[in-house]
Amino acid sequence: MGPWIAQEMQRRHGERMTVQTDFQLGIECCVDMARHKVVLFLDAARVGPEPFKVRQLGAAASGSLPMIDVGFTTHLSSPEVLLALCESSLAARPLAWLVGVRGYNFGGGEGTEQESAAECSRCH
Predict the structure, then answer these.
(1) What CATH number corresponds to the domain at position 109?
(2) How far apart are CA 55 and CA 19, in angstroms?
(3) How many domains would you assign to the chain?
């Protein structure tokens, strides 16, 4: 579902935005995040409102970034950890939102099912 949304966003708004598809968030994403004023994280959600839910993250939502126990791994970080690293290491504070798109089928390699495709088309 995520790659489909990214492809549609690139097709419709590519001249005004950078679209990047990452299946895992790693600390290397901070460099790309620091280059932008606004960052959207899109993820599939097993539960939640249809077609999607938007939640503001980081400093813009609370006035300051929370103290985060940063545990390093080479493959996975949360958006909040990346925002904290972006600010502390690169002095950048992009506005950030998490968009949870309602999904229905989470089996790998099974393709986008009809309900998920319909929800995706309502997101842009």
Answers:
(1) 3.40.50.1450
(2) 19
(3) 1
- Residue range(s) defining the domain that contains residue 60: 2-121
Axis-axis angle for helices 114-121, 2-13 (nearest 10): 30
Q: Are 43 and 99 in contact (CB under 8 A)?
A: yes
Residue count (the chain): 124
Predicted TM-score of the model (pTM): 0.70
Provide the CB-side half-sphere exposure for 12 (13 A, CA): 9
Dihedral angle sign, alpha carbons of residues 110, 4, 6, 62: negative
Nearest to 37 by CA among 55, 59, 52, 21: 59
Query: What pLDDT tens digit does each residue of the chain (124 aa) get?
Result: 677 788 888 888 878 888 888 778 888 889 999 999 999 888 888 777 788 888 998 754 555 555 555 555 555 788 888 898 899 899 999 999 888 888 777 666 555 555 555 555 555 5
- Of the chain, the end-to-end C-alpha distance in Å amounts to 13
